[in-house]
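INTERNAL AUDIT FORM
Audit reference: QA-55
Scope: verify that the stored structure record matches its stored sequence.
Auditor: D.O.
Record contents follow.
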Amino acid sequence: MVEGANCFRFSPAHPKVQVGVSSTHEVLNSSQREFYAMDLRREPDMNDAEGDEMVLLGLAEAEKHGVLDAIASTYSPDNDRLTDGIARPGVRVVTFAPILKHDMFPLADLLERLLAIGEKGTSAPVEIEFAVNLAVPKGEHPEFGFLQMRPLAMASEAEDTEIGHVLSSQLICRSDTVLGNGRIADLADVIVVDRDTFDRSRSHEVADDVARLNAKLQKAGRPFLLIGVGRWGSNDPHLGIPISWNDIAGARVIVESGFKDMQVTPSQGTHFFQNLTSCNVGYFTVNPEAGEGFIDWEFLFGAKVVERTAFVRWLHFDDPLLIKMSGRTGEGVILKPGVEAERRGA
């Protein structure tokens, strides 16, 4: 989930309703197929990097060890039906149905209570991390481990921001799919991935370039606008840029644009999305070829370049950009430098 792979989502208040799917095939397409396990047979080595002790396994291995009993359902292609539990033969699907629908363990109730207590204690909505141990000795109760809690960042402005009428010639970007609310008027630096030269087979190089520039700007204390193609933090390098959150953490606003030949699906179902909301980072999605939003690539590629690689440019403007996001309508605009001053003068 942290790396952007498929995960199961549900609301603790409505645990029997699966979020974001409307058909059996959508459940199958979004279902988790693999999991990480710690290899206890491996001898520790002082040269090991973090994560070297982990192995990626399929669900068949989990079933062999009895782990799927409490968390899986079974899909039968013969009748196109999903059945709770794994008593029948078929394709195993992680749905947590035995826990959420049949109360094998009171997970939803515990989460709902803890979220309410956390919100009361911090005066803000919270996110929590937890672990559950169901593999306890016979006669003992399962264990719920409360690991971490932190308040979700609040919007920078309590009142909704009005976008107003802006000419396309005054814009760097417009989107109707925006997360965030408020005005940001102090960004003069932009890291942008060149859509014309971007090579999906070399997306790891793009990630390295962006991480290096992010580190420079963070060290200088200069937040920036980040514009890329495909999904930031994608687990599949052919669908975007496989970069970790820490390597773009200096961005104050992030834009995801579709490829010339393929639309981009927003990152809003992943742990990456949770980082956006928790860190109060503005987020724009645009797919210009499909008529969804707009980016003035010509203006960006004609701007002053501080540093350039084969696929990435670091731009700097003498005047800061103005970014406006409406949490009510989901609209957002990024104005060219100096436009707001010109409009006030007019």
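Auditor finding: record pair retrieved intact. The CA atoms of residues 223 and 250 lie 5 Å apart.
Action required: none
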